[in-house]
Specification:
Elements lengths: L21 H16 L3 E6 L3 E3 L6 E8 L20 H8 L3 E8 L7 H10 L5 E7 L19 E9 L6 H8 L5 H10 L4 H9 L14 H20 L3 E2 L3 E8 L2 E8 L4 E8 L13 E7 L12 H17 L1 E2 L1 E8 L10 H11 L4 E3 L2 H11 L4 H6 L2 H12 L1
Parallel strand pairs: 4-6, 7-12, 10-13
Antiparallel strand pairs: 1-5, 2-3, 3-4, 5-6, 8-9, 8-14, 9-13, 10-11
Length: 403
Protein backbone atom coordinates (compact mmCIF):
# COMPACT_ATOMS: atom_id res chain seq x y z
CA UNK A 1 0.00 0.00 0.00
CA UNK A 2 1.02 3.64 -0.25
CA UNK A 3 2.86 4.57 2.93
CA UNK A 4 0.58 6.68 5.11
CA UNK A 5 1.49 6.17 8.76
CA UNK A 6 1.44 9.95 9.29
CA UNK A 7 -1.83 10.48 7.46
CA UNK A 8 -5.10 10.87 9.33
CA UNK A 9 -6.88 8.37 7.06
CA UNK A 10 -8.99 5.45 8.26
CA UNK A 11 -8.29 2.52 5.94
CA UNK A 12 -10.83 -0.16 5.16
CA UNK A 13 -9.92 -3.68 3.96
CA UNK A 14 -10.59 -4.01 0.23
CA UNK A 15 -9.64 -7.62 -0.38
CA UNK A 16 -13.26 -8.77 -0.28
CA UNK A 17 -14.28 -6.54 -3.19
CA UNK A 18 -14.51 -7.82 -6.74
CA UNK A 19 -11.69 -5.71 -8.12
CA UNK A 20 -12.44 -6.77 -11.69
CA UNK A 21 -15.57 -4.60 -11.53
CA UNK A 22 -14.56 -0.99 -12.25
CA UNK A 23 -17.97 0.43 -11.32
CA UNK A 24 -17.85 -1.29 -7.93
CA UNK A 25 -14.31 -0.03 -7.35
CA UNK A 26 -15.29 3.54 -8.24
CA UNK A 27 -18.37 3.36 -6.01
CA UNK A 28 -16.33 2.04 -3.09
CA UNK A 29 -13.84 4.90 -3.21
CA UNK A 30 -16.55 7.51 -3.73
CA UNK A 31 -18.26 6.23 -0.59
CA UNK A 32 -14.99 6.04 1.34
CA UNK A 33 -13.98 9.58 0.39
CA UNK A 34 -17.37 11.19 1.00
CA UNK A 35 -17.05 11.74 4.74
CA UNK A 36 -13.65 13.44 4.34
CA UNK A 37 -14.56 15.93 1.58
CA UNK A 38 -18.27 16.68 2.12
CA UNK A 39 -17.53 20.35 2.83
CA UNK A 40 -16.48 23.58 1.11
CA UNK A 41 -13.20 24.02 2.99
CA UNK A 42 -10.46 21.51 2.20
CA UNK A 43 -7.01 21.61 3.74
CA UNK A 44 -4.22 19.09 3.51
CA UNK A 45 -0.78 18.21 2.20
CA UNK A 46 -0.56 18.37 -1.58
CA UNK A 47 2.04 15.82 -2.87
CA UNK A 48 2.46 18.49 -4.50
CA UNK A 49 0.26 18.01 -7.54
CA UNK A 50 -1.73 20.14 -9.95
CA UNK A 51 -4.06 19.65 -12.90
CA UNK A 52 -4.68 21.76 -16.00
CA UNK A 53 -7.69 20.76 -18.09
CA UNK A 54 -8.00 20.93 -21.86
CA UNK A 55 -11.73 21.39 -22.45
CA UNK A 56 -12.65 24.91 -23.57
CA UNK A 57 -9.07 25.59 -24.70
CA UNK A 58 -7.64 28.29 -24.62
CA UNK A 59 -9.82 28.99 -21.57
CA UNK A 60 -9.17 26.01 -19.30
CA UNK A 61 -9.62 24.99 -15.69
CA UNK A 62 -6.48 25.08 -13.56
CA UNK A 63 -6.02 24.18 -9.93
CA UNK A 64 -4.27 22.14 -7.22
CA UNK A 65 -4.87 18.53 -6.19
CA UNK A 66 -5.19 18.36 -2.41
CA UNK A 67 -6.03 15.38 -0.17
CA UNK A 68 -7.91 16.14 3.07
CA UNK A 69 -5.02 14.65 5.07
CA UNK A 70 -1.87 15.96 6.71
CA UNK A 71 1.54 14.33 6.37
CA UNK A 72 3.97 13.00 3.79
CA UNK A 73 1.80 12.55 0.70
CA UNK A 74 4.67 12.87 -1.78
CA UNK A 75 4.28 9.33 -3.11
CA UNK A 76 0.75 10.16 -4.28
CA UNK A 77 2.25 12.53 -6.85
CA UNK A 78 5.21 10.44 -8.01
CA UNK A 79 4.13 7.69 -10.44
CA UNK A 80 7.79 6.69 -10.73
CA UNK A 81 7.25 4.97 -7.35
CA UNK A 82 4.08 3.08 -8.29
CA UNK A 83 5.54 0.17 -10.28
CA UNK A 84 4.68 -2.42 -7.62
CA UNK A 85 1.25 -0.98 -6.77
CA UNK A 86 -2.05 -2.62 -7.71
CA UNK A 87 -4.90 -0.75 -9.40
CA UNK A 88 -6.93 -0.66 -6.14
CA UNK A 89 -3.92 0.76 -4.27
CA UNK A 90 -3.40 3.46 -6.89
CA UNK A 91 -7.08 4.38 -6.99
CA UNK A 92 -7.31 4.36 -3.19
CA UNK A 93 -4.57 6.97 -2.86
CA UNK A 94 -5.41 9.12 -5.87
CA UNK A 95 -9.16 9.20 -5.21
CA UNK A 96 -8.46 11.32 -2.12
CA UNK A 97 -7.00 14.16 -4.21
CA UNK A 98 -9.61 16.91 -4.41
CA UNK A 99 -9.30 19.14 -7.46
CA UNK A 100 -10.01 22.83 -7.12
CA UNK A 101 -10.93 24.37 -10.49
CA UNK A 102 -10.57 27.96 -11.67
CA UNK A 103 -10.98 28.98 -15.29
CA UNK A 104 -8.07 30.87 -16.81
CA UNK A 105 -6.87 31.77 -20.27
CA UNK A 106 -3.71 29.81 -21.04
CA UNK A 107 -1.79 33.06 -21.65
CA UNK A 108 -2.73 34.54 -18.27
CA UNK A 109 0.32 33.05 -16.55
CA UNK A 110 1.72 36.29 -15.16
CA UNK A 111 -1.56 37.75 -13.91
CA UNK A 112 -3.16 34.72 -12.28
CA UNK A 113 -2.79 34.50 -8.51
CA UNK A 114 -3.91 30.88 -8.59
CA UNK A 115 -1.45 30.20 -11.40
CA UNK A 116 1.45 31.62 -9.41
CA UNK A 117 0.57 29.35 -6.49
CA UNK A 118 0.43 26.36 -8.85
CA UNK A 119 3.93 27.28 -10.01
CA UNK A 120 5.00 27.46 -6.38
CA UNK A 121 3.67 23.92 -5.90
CA UNK A 122 5.29 22.71 -9.14
CA UNK A 123 8.78 23.73 -8.00
CA UNK A 124 8.36 22.59 -4.39
CA UNK A 125 10.85 20.02 -3.15
CA UNK A 126 8.32 18.15 -1.00
CA UNK A 127 4.67 17.98 -0.06
CA UNK A 128 3.12 21.34 0.78
CA UNK A 129 0.31 22.58 3.00
CA UNK A 130 -2.62 23.91 0.93
CA UNK A 131 -5.98 25.35 1.97
CA UNK A 132 -8.87 25.65 -0.48
CA UNK A 133 -12.24 27.39 -0.21
CA UNK A 134 -14.55 25.79 -2.75
CA UNK A 135 -17.73 27.25 -4.24
CA UNK A 136 -19.62 24.07 -3.32
CA UNK A 137 -19.04 20.61 -1.97
CA UNK A 138 -16.93 18.55 -4.37
CA UNK A 139 -18.54 16.52 -7.12
CA UNK A 140 -17.89 12.88 -6.29
CA UNK A 141 -16.63 11.91 -9.73
CA UNK A 142 -13.29 10.14 -9.89
CA UNK A 143 -11.39 11.16 -13.04
CA UNK A 144 -9.72 8.42 -15.09
CA UNK A 145 -7.71 9.00 -18.23
CA UNK A 146 -5.25 6.79 -20.12
CA UNK A 147 -2.83 9.73 -20.29
CA UNK A 148 -2.92 11.31 -16.83
CA UNK A 149 -3.03 9.82 -13.36
CA UNK A 150 -6.48 9.41 -11.76
CA UNK A 151 -7.69 11.89 -9.16
CA UNK A 152 -10.78 12.36 -7.03
CA UNK A 153 -13.66 14.80 -6.60
CA UNK A 154 -13.67 18.34 -7.98
CA UNK A 155 -15.35 21.69 -7.36
CA UNK A 156 -14.95 25.34 -8.44
CA UNK A 157 -12.18 27.08 -6.52
CA UNK A 158 -12.94 30.38 -4.75
CA UNK A 159 -9.74 30.88 -2.77
CA UNK A 160 -6.54 29.00 -2.05
CA UNK A 161 -3.40 29.52 -0.03
CA UNK A 162 -0.10 27.68 0.08
CA UNK A 163 1.95 27.37 3.26
CA UNK A 164 5.70 27.80 3.40
CA UNK A 165 7.30 25.47 0.88
CA UNK A 166 10.82 24.26 0.41
CA UNK A 167 11.81 24.92 -3.19
CA UNK A 168 13.77 22.47 -5.30
CA UNK A 169 16.89 24.40 -6.32
CA UNK A 170 17.10 22.98 -9.85
CA UNK A 171 13.39 23.53 -10.50
CA UNK A 172 13.59 27.07 -9.15
CA UNK A 173 16.55 27.84 -11.41
CA UNK A 174 14.68 26.63 -14.51
CA UNK A 175 11.58 28.55 -13.47
CA UNK A 176 13.56 31.77 -12.95
CA UNK A 177 15.30 31.56 -16.35
CA UNK A 178 12.80 33.28 -18.62
CA UNK A 179 15.29 33.42 -21.52
CA UNK A 180 15.59 29.63 -21.80
CA UNK A 181 13.35 27.72 -24.27
CA UNK A 182 10.97 25.21 -22.69
CA UNK A 183 12.61 22.24 -24.44
CA UNK A 184 16.02 23.22 -23.09
CA UNK A 185 14.56 23.58 -19.61
CA UNK A 186 13.01 20.10 -19.78
CA UNK A 187 16.29 18.53 -20.86
CA UNK A 188 18.37 20.35 -18.24
CA UNK A 189 16.04 19.26 -15.41
CA UNK A 190 15.98 15.69 -16.71
CA UNK A 191 19.78 15.52 -16.94
CA UNK A 192 19.99 16.77 -13.36
CA UNK A 193 17.87 13.87 -12.16
CA UNK A 194 14.47 15.53 -11.80
CA UNK A 195 11.66 12.98 -12.25
CA UNK A 196 9.78 13.07 -15.54
CA UNK A 197 6.45 13.51 -13.73
CA UNK A 198 7.73 16.64 -11.96
CA UNK A 199 8.97 18.16 -15.22
CA UNK A 200 5.50 17.55 -16.65
CA UNK A 201 3.93 19.49 -13.77
CA UNK A 202 6.15 22.55 -14.06
CA UNK A 203 5.47 22.68 -17.80
CA UNK A 204 1.70 22.42 -17.18
CA UNK A 205 1.88 25.24 -14.64
CA UNK A 206 3.47 27.58 -17.19
CA UNK A 207 6.82 27.51 -15.38
CA UNK A 208 9.14 26.73 -18.30
CA UNK A 209 10.11 28.56 -21.46
CA UNK A 210 10.90 32.05 -22.63
CA UNK A 211 8.81 34.66 -20.85
CA UNK A 212 6.79 35.68 -23.92
CA UNK A 213 5.93 32.04 -24.66
CA UNK A 214 4.94 30.85 -21.21
CA UNK A 215 1.41 29.53 -20.84
CA UNK A 216 -0.61 26.96 -18.96
CA UNK A 217 -0.38 23.61 -20.73
CA UNK A 218 -3.16 21.02 -20.31
CA UNK A 219 -1.80 18.21 -18.18
CA UNK A 220 -2.56 15.60 -20.82
CA UNK A 221 -0.53 17.54 -23.38
CA UNK A 222 2.33 18.33 -21.00
CA UNK A 223 2.83 14.62 -20.29
CA UNK A 224 3.25 13.78 -23.96
CA UNK A 225 5.32 16.90 -24.68
CA UNK A 226 7.88 15.97 -22.03
CA UNK A 227 8.08 12.29 -23.06
CA UNK A 228 8.47 13.33 -26.70
CA UNK A 229 11.09 16.02 -26.04
CA UNK A 230 13.23 13.89 -23.72
CA UNK A 231 13.16 10.82 -25.95
CA UNK A 232 14.22 12.89 -28.96
CA UNK A 233 17.05 14.26 -26.83
CA UNK A 234 18.23 10.74 -25.99
CA UNK A 235 17.84 9.54 -29.59
CA UNK A 236 20.19 12.21 -30.95
CA UNK A 237 22.98 10.33 -29.20
CA UNK A 238 21.60 6.84 -29.78
CA UNK A 239 21.42 7.30 -33.56
CA UNK A 240 25.17 7.95 -33.69
CA UNK A 241 26.10 4.66 -31.96
CA UNK A 242 26.76 1.18 -33.32
CA UNK A 243 24.01 -1.42 -33.51
CA UNK A 244 23.49 -4.18 -30.98
CA UNK A 245 24.87 -7.48 -32.26
CA UNK A 246 22.28 -9.98 -31.03
CA UNK A 247 18.50 -10.15 -30.73
CA UNK A 248 17.66 -9.22 -27.15
CA UNK A 249 14.28 -9.58 -25.41
CA UNK A 250 13.00 -8.24 -22.09
CA UNK A 251 9.69 -9.06 -20.44
CA UNK A 252 7.46 -7.80 -17.65
CA UNK A 253 3.96 -8.51 -16.30
CA UNK A 254 2.09 -5.88 -14.29
CA UNK A 255 -1.52 -4.72 -13.79
CA UNK A 256 -2.63 -7.63 -16.01
CA UNK A 257 -0.51 -6.21 -18.84
CA UNK A 258 2.09 -8.42 -20.52
CA UNK A 259 5.09 -6.67 -22.01
CA UNK A 260 7.78 -7.89 -24.37
CA UNK A 261 10.51 -5.49 -25.49
CA UNK A 262 12.32 -6.88 -28.53
CA UNK A 263 15.59 -5.36 -29.73
CA UNK A 264 16.91 -6.37 -33.15
CA UNK A 265 20.25 -5.45 -34.73
CA UNK A 266 20.05 -2.55 -37.17
CA UNK A 267 19.56 1.19 -37.43
CA UNK A 268 17.04 2.82 -35.10
CA UNK A 269 13.40 2.11 -35.73
CA UNK A 270 10.65 1.79 -33.17
CA UNK A 271 7.14 0.48 -32.82
CA UNK A 272 4.61 0.02 -30.04
CA UNK A 273 1.92 -2.60 -30.70
CA UNK A 274 -0.92 -2.84 -28.17
CA UNK A 275 -3.52 -5.62 -28.05
CA UNK A 276 -6.59 -4.80 -25.95
CA UNK A 277 -8.80 -7.65 -24.81
CA UNK A 278 -12.59 -7.25 -24.50
CA UNK A 279 -13.79 -5.39 -21.39
CA UNK A 280 -10.64 -3.31 -21.13
CA UNK A 281 -10.30 0.46 -21.37
CA UNK A 282 -10.14 0.86 -25.15
CA UNK A 283 -12.18 -2.20 -26.05
CA UNK A 284 -15.49 -2.10 -24.19
CA UNK A 285 -18.00 -3.00 -26.87
CA UNK A 286 -16.61 -5.94 -28.78
CA UNK A 287 -16.01 -9.64 -28.32
CA UNK A 288 -12.81 -9.45 -30.33
CA UNK A 289 -9.29 -8.41 -29.41
CA UNK A 290 -8.40 -5.00 -30.86
CA UNK A 291 -4.81 -4.27 -31.90
CA UNK A 292 -3.33 -0.77 -32.37
CA UNK A 293 0.18 0.18 -33.47
CA UNK A 294 2.34 3.18 -34.28
CA UNK A 295 5.88 3.17 -35.62
CA UNK A 296 8.79 5.25 -36.83
CA UNK A 297 11.99 4.62 -38.71
CA UNK A 298 15.39 6.33 -38.57
CA UNK A 299 14.12 9.76 -39.66
CA UNK A 300 11.44 9.79 -36.96
CA UNK A 301 7.76 10.78 -37.13
CA UNK A 302 6.26 13.98 -38.51
CA UNK A 303 2.71 13.33 -37.26
CA UNK A 304 1.21 12.52 -33.87
CA UNK A 305 1.28 8.79 -33.12
CA UNK A 306 -2.03 7.06 -33.76
CA UNK A 307 -1.67 5.12 -30.52
CA UNK A 308 -1.40 8.32 -28.45
CA UNK A 309 0.72 9.30 -25.48
CA UNK A 310 1.71 5.72 -24.61
CA UNK A 311 3.87 5.69 -27.75
CA UNK A 312 6.08 8.54 -26.52
CA UNK A 313 6.25 7.19 -22.96
CA UNK A 314 7.54 3.82 -24.14
CA UNK A 315 9.93 5.51 -26.58
CA UNK A 316 11.47 7.48 -23.72
CA UNK A 317 12.04 4.34 -21.66
CA UNK A 318 13.58 2.57 -24.67
CA UNK A 319 15.82 5.46 -25.70
CA UNK A 320 17.09 5.74 -22.11
CA UNK A 321 18.15 2.11 -22.14
CA UNK A 322 19.87 2.29 -25.53
CA UNK A 323 21.69 5.47 -24.53
CA UNK A 324 22.83 3.75 -21.34
CA UNK A 325 24.35 0.78 -23.20
CA UNK A 326 25.69 2.97 -26.02
CA UNK A 327 23.91 1.10 -28.82
CA UNK A 328 21.06 1.52 -31.27
CA UNK A 329 18.54 -1.09 -32.38
CA UNK A 330 15.29 -1.81 -34.13
CA UNK A 331 12.77 -1.87 -31.29
CA UNK A 332 9.37 -3.54 -31.14
CA UNK A 333 7.34 -3.37 -27.92
CA UNK A 334 4.41 -5.78 -27.63
CA UNK A 335 1.73 -5.11 -25.02
CA UNK A 336 -1.18 -7.39 -24.20
CA UNK A 337 -3.81 -5.72 -22.02
CA UNK A 338 -5.98 -8.34 -20.33
CA UNK A 339 -9.34 -7.85 -18.52
CA UNK A 340 -7.67 -7.37 -15.13
CA UNK A 341 -6.64 -3.89 -16.35
CA UNK A 342 -10.09 -2.64 -15.39
CA UNK A 343 -9.46 1.09 -15.70
CA UNK A 344 -6.78 3.43 -17.03
CA UNK A 345 -4.24 4.76 -14.55
CA UNK A 346 -2.16 6.98 -16.85
CA UNK A 347 0.67 6.94 -19.36
CA UNK A 348 3.16 6.52 -16.51
CA UNK A 349 2.04 2.85 -16.53
CA UNK A 350 3.67 2.40 -19.93
CA UNK A 351 6.82 4.41 -19.24
CA UNK A 352 7.55 2.88 -15.86
CA UNK A 353 6.75 -0.73 -16.75
CA UNK A 354 8.86 -0.60 -19.91
CA UNK A 355 11.61 0.89 -17.75
CA UNK A 356 11.08 -1.95 -15.27
CA UNK A 357 11.28 -4.56 -18.04
CA UNK A 358 14.54 -3.07 -19.31
CA UNK A 359 16.10 -3.37 -15.85
CA UNK A 360 15.60 -7.13 -15.82
CA UNK A 361 17.98 -9.78 -17.11
CA UNK A 362 17.35 -10.13 -20.87
CA UNK A 363 17.26 -13.20 -23.06
CA UNK A 364 19.42 -13.40 -26.20
CA UNK A 365 18.54 -15.22 -29.41
CA UNK A 366 20.73 -16.30 -32.30
CA UNK A 367 17.94 -16.26 -34.88
CA UNK A 368 14.79 -14.36 -35.72
CA UNK A 369 12.76 -17.56 -35.69
CA UNK A 370 13.84 -18.47 -32.16
CA UNK A 371 12.88 -14.98 -30.95
CA UNK A 372 9.48 -15.24 -32.62
CA UNK A 373 8.99 -18.67 -31.07
CA UNK A 374 9.60 -17.08 -27.67
CA UNK A 375 6.93 -14.47 -28.43
CA UNK A 376 4.55 -17.34 -29.20
CA UNK A 377 5.29 -18.91 -25.81
CA UNK A 378 5.01 -15.75 -23.71
CA UNK A 379 2.08 -13.98 -25.37
CA UNK A 380 -1.47 -15.28 -25.71
CA UNK A 381 -1.93 -13.79 -29.17
CA UNK A 382 -0.52 -15.75 -32.09
CA UNK A 383 2.81 -14.62 -33.53
CA UNK A 384 1.29 -14.14 -36.98
CA UNK A 385 -1.15 -11.58 -35.56
CA UNK A 386 1.71 -9.56 -34.08
CA UNK A 387 3.56 -9.68 -37.40
CA UNK A 388 0.45 -8.68 -39.34
CA UNK A 389 0.06 -5.58 -37.17
CA UNK A 390 3.76 -4.60 -36.98
CA UNK A 391 5.44 -2.63 -39.74
CA UNK A 392 8.87 -3.03 -38.12
CA UNK A 393 8.58 -6.81 -37.71
CA UNK A 394 7.40 -7.19 -41.29
CA UNK A 395 10.37 -5.14 -42.45
CA UNK A 396 12.80 -7.32 -40.50
CA UNK A 397 11.27 -10.51 -41.91
CA UNK A 398 11.26 -9.13 -45.47
CA UNK A 399 14.92 -8.13 -45.16
CA UNK A 400 15.80 -11.61 -43.94
CA UNK A 401 13.95 -13.21 -46.86
CA UNK A 402 15.79 -11.00 -49.39
CA UNK A 403 19.12 -11.85 -47.77
Amino acid sequence: MFEAEQLSVRRTPIAYLNMRNPQLLKYYYKFKTLSMIDKEDISGSSPPDIFVGRFGYPNVFIGPLVPPVIGDTSEMGLPETWVNKSIPEIVEARSMLVRGMQKENIHNVDDSRTGSMLQELAIADRYASVEMRLARRPNLTIKFDENSQPFGPSAPLKLMSVGNTKTNRQMEKAYADTAMPAGTGMVELYEKGIEVSRIQKILAAGGLGMKKNRRFVPTRWSITAVDDTLSKHRLRTVKETESIEQITVFEDVALDNRWLVLLFPGAWSYELVEAWYPNTTWNQDTKNIVIFSSSEFFAGRKTYAEIGGCYYAARLATSEYLDKIGKQARVVILRETHPGYIMPVGVWNVREHVRAALKKEPLHFDSLQSALNFVGVKMAIAVNEWIRNSAVLRGIIHQRVLA
